[in-house]
Structure formats: structure tokens, C-alpha cells
Amino acid sequence: MAKTAQTDLHLTAAQALVQANELCQKGDLTAAERRHLAGLFVAAAEPLSAAVQWLRLPEAERIGADGISPALAKQVTLWANLRNEMSSVAARLAADLGLERVYGAEDHLSDVAQPDFATFKAAVAAEPGQVDLFKHNTPTFHAVPEESMKMATAAAEVMPVMKWKNSPRFAELDADAQWLSMLRSEKMGRVGRQRVAAWEAQNLRMAVTIREATAPIAGGRALLLVGAAHKPFIEAYLRTLTDIELVSVPAMLDAKTADCAQ
């Protein structure tokens, strides 16, 4: 879709992002300007930021116009209504807070450092119990009630699971089961060590992206939404940086603001 938007706007991805950033600085955008900004974000390969603009528009204004075609408007509507952490939480929260965009931190440049998939699969199969570790199918995990809860099927289980997945204990157990176990495995050998190296490189690049995104808001706050497996690694890297303070998610979820009824 980015290529289509670039063709429609006669812009490269870099040019679209420059124009988008300039328009974001204006503030108090009209509906036409928001539609145009959404189109710029699509062209810049920033679909979630396009979704933020779409969500900030009244529903009747979410139409194909002002540089965004009807086909692209339909696609942005789909992005804005996806049920995942990026659209349901990040984009909607940004729109509710009056922010103009979100920043993607995902990185796959380190995929080139990963071992060949077939070789890795064979190495995993050679290590008894490795698949069970990956799946948390161990007595240690079974002893945690929240590990078997499913947020998708029971609203009452959302908060307990969120607290568990963000806890230091989960981070310790998950990192050991999924990653440190491969370093200990003699059967996986260099293949396991190579996979962990690629994983660490990926998380390091993500931490760099986060630091760059927070640079303009020194003294401000940022919310990072990331897979639970990434969390302990990225946090470890962020703790080595200056002017970064990490907030405990379980403690934050336990806190109640003055205007919070529950």
C-alpha cells in the first residue's frame, strides 16, 4: 500500500515522512489535513500512524479524499479496526490522547544473522524437552495459575495475565526457557548460540529505535507495547542509557488514579 500512496502523492517514502512530520507540528488540523496526513503516513510506510489520524477523524470524515484514495481509505479503516495491541491499544490510545502518531520499534535486520531454519529445527529436535521449554510446558510454568488464563476468552482474566506477563518473575522464567536454555544446550551447540545472538541484536536495535523516538520528549513519558519475550531484553538495554527511567508495569496497573472508579 505504501507504493500505491507514493505513486498517488508523487513522493518517496522519505519525502512523505518529512512532509508528515511538518504537518504534525502545525496542530489543530482540519479534517482535510488529517486525511492528507493519513495518506502521507501510508506513503511513508507508517500504517499505524495513518490509523491514528483516521481514528482522530469523525467517522463521517473517514473518506477517500485529499490525497488518499477510496481504496487506501478502506485499507486504513481496516488497520484502525484490527484487534491487536498495535491498533486496539497503541493507535487508539494515541488518538484518545491527541497524539499525531505512534512509532514502530519492530526490527528484523538481524534476521540475516539467524541460522538456517531447517538446521535450527533439527537442532531443536535433537535437544529433549526444548520444544516444551519454548511452549512453557514445564512444572514451573504449570504452577502459575495466570499462565493458563486466556485474555481472549475471559475479560476478568485480562488484568491478572497482564500483571503476570509484565512481572520480573515471568521475565526471568521466559528468558531462561526460550533463550538461555539454548545457550546451555550442548546438542544445539553453535546453532542455539547463533539464534540467541540474532535475538539479542534484534532487541538492541529496537532499544535504539525507542531511544531515538523519545529524544524529542526529554522529561516526558512514553508507553512501549512489545511482546513479553522482548521485554526483559529491551529493558536491560534501556537501563544502560542515560535519562531513561523505567516504570514497573505491575505497580502501575495496581495504582488507582483519583478519577478511576475501579
Q: Which helices and strands occur, and which strands form pairs?
A:
Elements: H1 2-9, H2 13-24, H3 31-43, H4 47-56, H5 70-80, H6 85-96, H7 117-126, H8 130-134, H9 139-142, H10 158-165, H11 168-184, H12 189-214, H13 231-238, H14 249-254
Helix pairs in contact: 1-3, 2-3, 3-4, 4-5, 4-6, 7-12, 11-12, 12-13
Summary, kept brief:
It is built from 14 helices and no strands. With 262 residues, it is mainly α.
What does this structure look like?
The chain has 262 residues and is mainly α. The chain has two domains: 2-96, no CATH class; 109-254, no CATH class. The chain is 57% helix and 0% strand. The chain is built from 14 helices and no strands. Helix 4 (47-56) packs across helix 6 and helix 12 packs across helix 13. The chain is globular and about 60 Å long. It starts with a helix and ends in an 8-residue tail after the last helix. The model has no long low-confidence stretch (mean pLDDT 92).
Question: In total, how many domains does the architecture comprise?
Answer: 2
Biggest sheet layout: none
> How many helical stretches?
14
Strand content: under 5%
Q: How would you state the average pLDDT, rounded?
A: 92
Percentage of helical residues?
55-70%
Radius of gyration, whole Å: 21 Å
| DSSP E strands, number | 0
Secondary-structure element series = HHHHHHHHHHHHHH
The low-confidence parts are none
Identify the overall geometry: globular
> Structural class from helices and strands?
mainly alpha
Query: For the terminal residues, how far apart are their CA atoms?
Result: 42 Å
**What is the oligomeric state here?**
single chain
